[in-house]
Amino acid sequence: IGTTKKADDGNIFGEEEESGSSSANDSWMASSDEKKQTRQAKPLRCWYQSSFLSSIVFQLSHFRNDAERRDLISIGAAAGFAAAFGAPVGGVLFSLEEASTFFANQMLWKSLLATAIATFCIAVFSGNLTNFSVISLGDISTPNDMVLHRRLEEVPFYVIMGVGGGTLGALFNAVWKSMNKRRKIIYLRYTSDKKR
Hints:
The chain is mostly helical. Helices cover 62% and strands 0% of the residues. The protein has a domain at 142-196.
């Protein structure tokens, strides 16, 4: 990782400064497009800084353990997924299914905390929290004709759907058990025929 120098004016990552006069009437003032690009570059700068800090932290003796490193990589994958899609629980499930070979119970709470913090931070950095965004602290208002009213006559349909789904699930489990028993019997017959 390359070295980073901070200039006297707070310029980070060796960005070159604009040459020319600094009067307010000059044509080099940043347009709204340039301001948007600067705002979009901030997460990239944060990524560089975080990778630099993580490389320093991993030099400590406590983090040289492979198990700790794997746990932190899984938590980082969960936090990245949560920040990208705005789904903290989805990030934990992604880490559980894809990024981890072993997932301890203690890691679940650490991953949930990391994903919640990542989702909140991305919501704060992306703009105003009162607008409808990843995390919205504002009110969601809909026209009256868009609001779904659940009526009492809809309840029997929900009951029928629940009973049907439960019956199909039980049927699936029964078929799966019988298939496993038959497969075991076929396997035992096949291996006993080979031994003869």
